[in-house]
Specification:
Porin; 18-stranded antiparallel β-barrel; 19 strands; 7% helix; 53% strand; globular
Length: 427
């Protein structure tokens, strides 16, 4: 019997070792619980905004399974639940479901539902702050090697098994029906400089009185650079949008941003930056609250598209996360400064200041929108458990009250507390 066991072990153990070398499985989770308290928020469609305090707890839970074989094939499946405490029916969805094949020498293809995150996430981002995140059903062809990265992305969206409505698609996972993007990145050898270029073409399908369901095409082109000499870090990007807006009106909009950081020590970083996003000059929403009749000959309001806007334009998410009343956007100027400090290991503290103004000069209102001060802190107990908290205060102007339909109380407050658990197991 002992000889039989020894013989079986001599056969099974090498096979098991070979399997372990060729196959890799990782199972992980992401549980996020965030309590928020707001006073003086936004009510875009109401004529009498509610100025009372609102308090709620939102949560998100993800379970993901990754599989790799010989660094040739990789698959990922992530299930996601998101909702508010007390909600009878939260959202259960598939966040990721993709497969990737590596052909060798840096070439690969990735197909399925996947997040797209590039550069500083200004245009494409995973939007991790939100409870649902941002993903795309797309095909990606890529090459990465010798300091070069090239990704070609294509997507085509359609209503589920639509056999009667033709090819009409009026929005679902993403608003576009067609999307093609080309992203190129280059890291300069022996020099702390990275350069990225991006071009996007997307078609949005709309309905009209003629029921011919046209597709309006619009494009985006631009670039991003990051320079890190010594203790300094300089980031800048600029993009232009053109083509036809989904309203059928010509589109010509642009944005530019820059940020300079200085690391006074490994635990203390200061920075200053400025964002400019173009906007429409015509004040389409009169102060009385009625929908304006002014027609735009050219849409100049820049859209942040699929970026992680929470990172850039103030943590209270008044801009490019929530919409302006009736879709009108006067653009944005965001002059900001901040300090990131790590008093002890695993504990971080951030303090920000924003001066906010419209990007366009309005006919019926002044440009300044207000001042926003933010404080955030986080502590990591270990690699699986962290806690974070923050508080933001904004003093808005009369322009802010009218444009955002916010409370007449210009002193707006928001506080939050978040717990995150990210267990993982691999074999």
């Amino acid at each position: 019997m002992k000889r039989l066991i020894t013989a079986l072990a001599a056969i099974v153990l090498p096979i098991s070792a070979c399997f372990a070398q060729e196959h890799f499985i990782s199972v992980g989770g992401d549980v996020l619980e965030r309590g928020e308290m707001r006073f003086g928020g936004i009510s875009e469609e109401s004529e009498t905004p509610d100025a009372n305090m609102a308090a709620f707890v939102v949560n998100r839970a993800r379970v993901n399974v990754d599989y790799k074989w010989k660094n040739i094939i990789e698959t990922c499946f992530t299930a996601q639940y998101s909702g508010t405490w007390g909600q009878a029916d939260g959202t259960l969805s598939i966040y990721e479901a993709w497969g990737q094949v590596n052909f060798g020498k840096g070439f690969f293809t990735k197909l399925g539902r996947q997040p797209l995150s590039y550069d500083d996430e200004r245009i494409f981002g995973s939007d991790d702050w939100s409870m649902t995140g941002s993903v795309h059903d797309a095909l990606k062809l890529g090459y990465e090697g010798h300091g070069h990265k090239v990704h070609l992305i294509g997507a085509y969206n359609q209503n589920p098994e639509n056999t009667e409505g033709g090819t009409v698609y009026l929005g679902g996972l993403q608003p576009y029906k067609f999307m093609q993007s080309l992203w190129y990145h280059y890291d300069v050898p022996r020099f702390p400089l990275g350069i990225s270029l991006i071009f996007m073409n997307q078609g949005v399908q709309v309905t009209n009185d003629n029921h011919n369901n046209p597709v309006w095409w619009q494009q985006l082109a631009g670039g991003y650079i990051e320079l890190s000499p010594g203790r300094w870090k300089i980031k800048a990007d600029s993009y232009v949008q053109f083509g036809t807006h989904e309203s059928g009106i010509p589109l010509l909009a642009w944005m530019i941003s820059g940020k300079v950081s200085y690391a006074a020590s490994p635990r203390l970083v200061t920075y200053v930056g400025y964002d400019y996003l173009s906007g429409d000059e015509n004040f389409a929403v009169p102060a009385g609250g009625m929908i304006g009749l002014q027609r735009h000959d050219v849409i100049r309001g820049f859209s942040s598209l699929y970026g992680s806007s929470h990172k850039f334009y103030g943590a209270m998410d008044f801009f490019y996360v929530s919409a302006y009343y009736h879709g009108f956007t006067p653009g944005l100027q965001n002059l900001y400064a901040g300090i990131s400090w790590e008093p002890i290991k695993k504990w971080g503290v951030d303090l920000f200041y924003h001066f906010l103004a419209t990007g366009a000069k309005l006919r019926n209102a002044d440009m300044p929108l207000g001042h926003e001060v933010e404080f955030a802190t986080n502590y990591s107990f270990n690699k699986y458990l962290s806690i974070a908290a923050g508080y933001s205060f904004m003093y808005g102007t009369e322009t802010m009250v009218v444009l955002k339909r916010s409370s007449d109380n210009r002193m707006l407050n928001w506080a939050w507390l978040m717990l995150r658990i990210t267990p993982s197991f691999s074999r």
